[in-house]
Amino acid sequence: MKIICIGQNYREHIMELGSKVPEKPVFFCKPDTALLIRNRPFYIPDFSQELHYETELVLRICKVGKNIAPKFAPDYYDAYTLGFDFTARDIQRHCRQEGLPWEICKAFDNSAAIGQFIPKAEFPQGPDQLHFEMKKNGETCQKGNTADMIFKVDEIISYVSKFFTLRTGDYIFTGTPPGVGSVKIGDKLEAFLEGTSILRCPIK
Ligand code: MG
User: Fold this and answer.
1) How far is the centre of ligand 1, averaged over its atoms, from the C-alpha of 68 (Å)?
2) CA 85 – ligand 1 centroid, Å
3) What is the pLDDT of residues 104-134, one digit of tens each?
4) Which of 102, 128, 135, 191 has the most CB within a 10 Å radius?
5) Is 181 buried (19+), middle (13-18) or exposed (0-12) by CB count in 10 A?
């Protein structure tokens, strides 16, 4: 399986990082070793002094597909969860300055925490009106609504599938709203999709 992550998909997050609004979806991959499941703790790696959370809607791919037209995209995912795209922000800054690949700041072990998947049928409003929230130590740090995505879910699936064959069991992180920030040992992150807690992550 593979984990595909969309970057720079919410205007206000792009502004907080001082980036440019992209004309096409920007994406990168994480290997299967990045997956962190079952609310297991995240251990801050010793190579970063500025480890950030990014809370994102995650799609589960349920069918093999290539060159998928946007109108058929809903056939290719069957469930949502929330995930943390853990990012070594200090290393990412260096990679951006030097024009280097992002793997060491984005794709390291346990950098893709995901919660419990909920069938998309349980959300009759569809993928483009989903509200989510992340609390750190009980305080709201991020609030997002997929209505604010620059590239919506169906467009993302269509675009990514031009380059990569999507397979059953792949995951797509769809980008983070504003409010990203750092974690320290002892923090407790909890993410809510439409008010339901579906991902918890103690930081160690
Ligand atoms: Mg992200």
Assistant:
1) 23
2) 5
3) 999 999 999 999 999 999 999 999 999 999 9
4) 191
5) middle
Q: Is 114 exposed, middle or buried (0-12, 13-18, 19+ CB in 10 A)?
A: buried
- Ligand 1 centroid from CA 169, angstroms: 19
Centre of ligand 1 from the C-alpha of residue 133, in Å? 15
Contact indicator for 75, 63 with CB cutoff of 8 Å: yes
What letter represents residue 143's amino acid?
Answer: K
Task: With H, G, I as helix, E, B as strand and everything else as coil, classify residue 139.
Answer: strand
Could you tell me the residue range of the domain that residue 11 belongs to?
3-202
Tell me how far the alpha carbon of residue 56 lies from the centroid of ligand 1, in angstroms.
7
What is the helix (H) or strand (E) element at residue 131, kind and residue range? strand 131-136
CA angle 174, 127, 170 (to 5 degrees): 45
Q: How many domains does the chain have?
A: 1
- Give this prediction's pTM: 0.97
Q: How far, in Å, CA of 151 to CA of 147, rounded? A: 10
Please give the helix or strand (H or E) that residue 3 lies within, else none.
strand 3-7
User: Which of 194, 11, 180 lies closest to 86 in space, CA to CA?
Assistant: 180
Of the candidates 199, 201, 1, the one whose C-alpha atom is nearest the C-alpha of residue 82 is 199
CATH code: domain of residue 54 = 3.90.850.10
Tell me, in angstroms, the distance from the centre of ligand 1 to residue 132's CA. Answer: 15
Q: Report the share of the chain in percent with pLDDT over 90.
A: 97
